[in-house]
Write a structure and sequence with these properties.
Mean pLDDT: 91
Strand order of the largest sheet: 1-2-7-4
Strand content: 5-15%
Structural class: alpha+beta
Number of helices: 19
Order of helices and strands: HHHEEHHHHHHEHHHHHHHEEEEHHHEEEE
Length: 411
């Protein structure tokens, strides 16, 4: 299969559901592949690192870049919202707001959030422990981060499903860059999100208070970042939880081990991130004429860094297509090879929250059930970038004892 066929397959409905066979061939034969003269797909681990660690040469496509490539972006509410957020701001424009978030989501602060995260994990796993039944994990377990982010933003619990729908509509047409021009639904969703968060996000809520305290953020930029954080904090972690449930369904022997083994629990989360990351691509642009792995790149070329592919590169990971739960039950340097949350200046500021939320959620799930089996074909959104589940029915056999007190804490 040639590169053109691989790209068509990757973007097909089947390829969006399972892109990994296509990545395998691309990594082996074309780790840096020109899609057009000014658009490049990078799948090799080292080649992706070369892009991610050089934000001067490969910045994110900020508003100045958008002005050159697609000046009409300012006329669309969804793209205006997108380019105002930290996701598409480079240094020094993304400071000090990014530093504020790095402190807010730092290990010490997230450790203090554990009781709050635990409450939401208990609620999200409760349906799994009541009876031998079929449960839709996409409406229970994968929504645990919705509750966590909602509380950090001071949002009413009954708004979670409505907000998730708007976030999905906002993201659907804004996945690639320049974004899809059919933006009417995304623009409507963006407008609703801004209006709703402006009316309901609590000024005393921890995350709102942190960003509002940054005096250089105007009202529009503040709201853009709140929407961005809501989306990033729910879609990515929810996808991670869904993928982990499927791995547990494939290997029920892990359940009793995850109840007690902290090192295995952390490794399981990292391996889930490597094996099927929530975000498949990150986007960068060439700041000047350059080349990558011998492939010429004119200035303003779009570079797609494949987070999904780099975790499957056999040059970095042994047997990359095999899920090995204890792969990262090793010293810290091996864990640093997992780049699913990015690397360097634009690494996800909320990565620690996502990891801790996932560890607590899987510990609670393992404590509640003795067996999990997929009950039908899971359904994903037909997206190229995000990997969210719309339906994930699983048959569960609950434990035959009361919920163990020790399972509420990940040490």
């Amino acid at each position: 299969m040639g590169p053109h066929d691989l790209l068509l397959g990757l973007l097909s409905p089947a390829g969006r559901v399972d892109p990994y066979p296509y990545y395998r061939d691309l990594i082996e034969r074309w780790p840096v592949l020109p899609i057009t003269r000014e658009r490049l797909l990078v799948t090799g681990y080292q080649e992706c690192v070369d892009v991610l660690v050089n934000p001067r040469l490969y910045p994110v496509p900020d508003r100045h870049c958008a002005d050159r490539l697609w000046p009409a972006w300012r006329t669309f509410p969804s793209t205006d919202l997108l380019y105002r957020s930290l996701l598409f701001r480079n240094a020094p424009d993304n400071q000090p707001a990014r530093r504020l978030l790095a402190r807010f989501f730092g290990p010490g602060e997230v450790a203090r959030m554990r009781p709050m995260i635990t409450r939401h994990a208990e609620a999200g796993t409760a349906p799994f422990g009541t009876a031998h039944a079929v449960v839709d994990a996409a409406r229970t377990f994968t929504t645990i981060p919705n509750g966590v982010m909602g509380e950090l933003l001071g949002l009413p619990r009954h708004d979670e499903e409505m907000l998730a729908g708007w976030v999905n509509s906002f993201l659907e047409r804004n996945e690639l860059h320049p974004p899809d021009k059919a933006l009417a639904v995304a623009d409507e969703a963006a407008t609703r999100l801004v209006e709703h968060l402006d009316a309901t996000a609590g000024g005393d809520a921890p995350l709102v208070r942190t960003l509002a305290g940054h005096g250089r953020l105007g009202a529009g930029d503040l709201m853009s970042n709140l929407v961005f954080l809501l989306g990033a904090g729910t879609v990515t972690t929810g996808s991670l939880l869904g993928t982990g449930v499927r791995r547990l369904a494939a290997c029920n022997d892990l359940l009793p081990r995850l109840r007690e083994d902290d090192a295995l629990l952390r490794s399981f989360v990292q391996e889930t991130l490597r094996y099927d990351p929530p975000i498949q691509y990150g986007v960068r642009v060439a700041a000047e004429d350059t080349e990558l792995a011998g492939v010429p790149l004119p200035r303003d070329s779009v570079v797609l860094v494949s987070f999904g592919a780099l975790g499957r590169d056999p040059a970095r990971f042994a047997d990359p297509d095999v899920f090995v739960a204890d792969r990262f039950d090793t010293p810290e340097p091996a864990v640093r090879d997992v780049l699913s949350f990015g690397l360097g200046a634009h690494r996800c500021a909320g990565a620690e929250l996502a990891l801790v939320t996932s560890e607590i959620a899987f510990r609670h799930l393992a404590a509640r059930v003795d067996a999990i089996t997929e009950a039908g074909m899971p359904e994903r959104q037909a997206r190229a970038v995000t990997r969210s589940y719309t339906e994930l029915a699983v048959e569960v056999v609950p434990v035959d004892r009361s919920f163990p007190e020790g399972a509420t804490t990940v040490r």
